[in-house]
Amino acid sequence: MDKHTHEHIKSAFFVNLVFTLLEVVGGLLTNSVAILSDAVHDLGDSISLGISWFLEKISKREPDDKYTYGYQRFSLLGGMMSSLVLFGGTIFILTETIPRLFQPERVDPLGMLLFSILGVSFNMLAYYKVRGGHSLNEKAVSLHLLEDVFGWGAIMLGSILILLFDWTFIDPLLSILIGSYIFLHVLRNLKEIFDVFLQKVPSSVDLSKIEELIKTIPDVLKVYHTHIWTLEGSKNMLTTHVLVDSEASASELIKIKKSIREYLKKEGITHVTIEFEFDR
Predict the structure, then answer these.
(1) pTM to 2 decimal places
(2) Whole domain around residue 52: which residue ranges?
(3) Are residue 171 and residue 212 in the same domain, yes or no?
(4) pLDDT digit string (tens) for 160-194?
(5) How many C-beta atoms surround the C-beta of residue 69 within 10 A?
(6) Under 8 Å CB-to-CB from 152, ≥6 apart: which residues?
């Protein structure tokens, strides 16, 4: 994460945090569980942005005797923490909201409409701060904020329907839809995070294909004990054992290793450890 990414996420964090506090007040004043549901969502976004901002300096540290692979997984840990906060908050909101679908309560649709206009405006401002970023962090954050804009658009539409037709069930229905969407989104994020922590082979990598192509290199007889994992979701790493002809010279071994590294670099694998073994 470069300096510009850090500043963009910092700005988006403060914009999102201020509006989250306004959302809580607005949800309580209008008695709208849809607004409160989105407040929980935005709280998770604020925590995620805050952790990302806070851990930015830590994740840039160079590897040392304690963390030989470096500190990049600290940002992944932040993602897990914010996802768990969102998970718990969404469960709470859903348990409070579902009964109101069958016994709708009166809400203030005009207040909902005003807050939805603020919601679209604040989230558009936060989105503007990070849009067009080139880093994975900025792209992920900008997409999330754009989703928030659409969520507030739905609340705006719901408040208009309540104003026109007095459909009070729209408010808990929107809350359940928003909560369900967040719930599924969080589950997907947690799965991806746990896959990284459990060192699952990245979905973008075909292990058998890599071994087969390495075996096509001259003097390579067999490839085995190949392990591939990702450090934090984008930096892929590999270790493997390569059986070579016992007559291979030192210069040929260097050439084999260079060929393997060049191929793996094209496959998005940047950190490679190769153990040579010889056919006797």
Answers:
(1) 0.73
(2) 3-197
(3) no
(4) 999 999 898 898 888 888 888 878 888 888 888 89
(5) 12
(6) 38, 116, 119, 120, 123
